[in-house]
TrEMBL record:
Protein name listed in UniProt: Uncharacterized protein
Gene Ontology BP terms: double-strand break repair involved in meiotic recombination; homologous chromosome pairing at meiosis; interstrand cross-link repair; mitotic intra-S DNA damage checkpoint signaling
Parts forming coiled coils: none
Entries under InterPro entries matching the protein: FANCD2
Family assignment from sequence similarity: Belongs to the Fanconi anemia protein FANCD2 family.
Keywords: Isopeptide bond, Nucleus, Ubl conjugation
Amino acid sequence: MMNFDVELLPPFIDLLLKRLDSTKKNAFAELLSHLSSSLQVDKLRPTRRGKIRHSLDDVVGEVFEKLTQFVVLGGETLEGDGASQESFITPPSDSPHSLGLFEVLLSIALLSLETCPLNVSNAIKQRFAQTQENVDILYQLFSEALKFKIYCERNMNTIISVAQQCLWSPKPDARKFGAKLFKELFVAIPKRREMTMRAMLTHAVQSDMESEAVLIELTTLIDESPEAVEPFIGLISEYFFVLERMSVDNVKRLFRAVFRLYAARPSTMSHKDNLITMIPLLLRSADNVQPIFGILAVLLRMETG
C-alpha cells in the first residue's frame, strides 16, 4: 500500500469501503485493523515528479474523512458496530496490539463526529488516559499527528478534550502526557494558540495535580519559545487574581514561569510592573495565605533577576 501515488490513496480507501461485505460481522473493524498494520501514515511521501495537486496533509485528511463518512452514511453505524470499533481502539490488555499513528488519527476523527456514541467516545479517551504505553511514545505519536496541521486544526476541540481527559486521570503519567499535549498543540497550531492557552490555563486552578502538570509545561514552553507565549502574558496574568485557588507550591510555579517570561521578553515590562505593584498588597493582606504569596513573588523576582 506504500508503493503507489499517495494521491490515489483516498479513492483506494473509498473502493475498499464500497466493497466491504455488509453481511459479515465486524467487517469495518477488520478493515481498520488491516489499514493500521499496512498504512504507515508517517512514511507517506509524494511520489509524483510533476506538480502535486494535493499535499500530504490534504490526502491524510481525506482518508480519515472517508472513514468517518462511512461511519455516518455507510452500511455500518457507530451505534450498530460500536462494540467492534471499541475493541479495535481499546484491545484487551493481553493483546499484542499497541497504539500507532493510524489509531491516533482515527481516534481524533471518530471523536470529532457529532454522532459518536458515549461508549465509543469514552473508550477512546480512556485508551489515552489509562494507556499502558510509555508516555514518551504516546507523546511522539501525537507529535507526529500534529504535523498534519490542517487536519488537526479542524479537530482542535477534540485534541483539547483528549488533553483534558488525561489531566483528569489519577495516573501521573497520563497527567504528564495531557499537559505535554497542550504544550505541543500550542506550538504546532499557531492560529489557535489563544484557544489552546485558555484551555490549558483552566487546569491551573483545578486539582493540585492538574495545576502542577500544566504549570511545569508552561514553564518549559516559556523557556523554549518565549516569543510564542509573549502575546498571552495578559491572559496568564489574570491568574494572579485567583491565587487562593492554588496551592503554595503551584503559586510558586506560576510566579517562576511569569518572571522567566519577563526576563526573556522585555516588552512584557508593563505586566511585570503590575505584578510588582501587587506585591506590597499581598504582603499587607490580612488573609493568612496572601502574605506568603507576596514573599514568594519577592524571592522569585530575585531569583530570575
